[in-house]
Amino acid sequence: MQMAVAAGPTVDTATIESVTGLKGNYNKTENVFKVSKPRDDVKISVDRWTMPPFMGLTSWAAFTPMGGSTMMMGDTVLFEDEVNPAMSAALEAGLEVTALHNHFFFDQPKVYFMHIGGMGDARQLATGVKAVYDRVAQVRASQPKPAKAFGGSIPTPSSITAARIEEILGAKPQVKDGMVKVSFGREAKMYGTPVGNEMGVNTWAAFAGTDERAVVDGDFAMREEELQTVLKVLRREGINIVAIHNHMTHEEPRYVFLHYWGKGKAAELAQSLKRTLDAQKAVK
Fold this sequence. Notes:
alpha+beta; six-stranded antiparallel β-sheet; 27% helix; Alpha-Beta Plaits
C-alpha cells in the first residue's frame, strides 16, 4: 500500500520565509515545510568537543496543513538566560510551550531545548516563531556571553516565617533549618494502583533565605490541558521555568511536570504561587 503524496505545499511557504527571515525546505512526502536557525553565535562544547550546529544545535520550526489551517511544531536551542525570555515571547505570541529539557551532559555553556507548537494561521504562527528568535537575539545582544546566575544572592542561614506561607497557600508546611515546604497531592493510577502525594504525584514549593530576600523552588503537577495556563501565570508573576517534562509513563490520567525557581519577598512569592494554583484549578 503506497502512501499518498500531496501535489505540493498547501501551507503559505513564501509568507513563512518572509516573516521568519529564514529559507525553508519542503518535504513533499510528508507535506511539511521547515525553517531552521543554527546556533553558531556562541561556541558550544560537549564532552570537551566543540560541537557544530549540524550535530543537534539548530533551532527549527516545521509547518504542515491541518484541515483549513496550519500546525506548527518546533524545537528551540537556548542558553539558560534565554529560556524564560524566549518562553514569554512564545506564550505572548499565542504559541504553546510543550517541553523544556537538556539533550546533553557536560555541555559548556549549558544548553536547553524548548519545544513549541501551535495551530492556526501560517502567518500568525511564523510571527510567533520570529518573536521567539528575536527575543533570543535581544538577550545575546545585551550580554554576548550567557549568564551564570539569575542574579541576587540568597541569605544564609534561612529564617522563613512558616505561618505566613501556611496562611497564603492554605497548607500545613514542613519546616527545617528555617526553610519551609508545602505540598499538594494529585490523584492518578499506575497499572490500576492508586498513586498520589507520597508517590510523587504532587505540586510542591520550598522557601529558603529570609522573608525579605527569599528563593522558592518547586514542581507543578499538571494535566496536559493545564500546562499552558500554569506557564502563562508563572511567567506573568516573574517566576522562572527551569524544566518541563514527564515523571512517569502509563499513568492515568497523564501528568506533565514543570520545575520553577523564583526570587523575591517570601510572601509575594507565595502569593504568586497561590494565583497560579487558583488559575490551574479553574481550567476545565
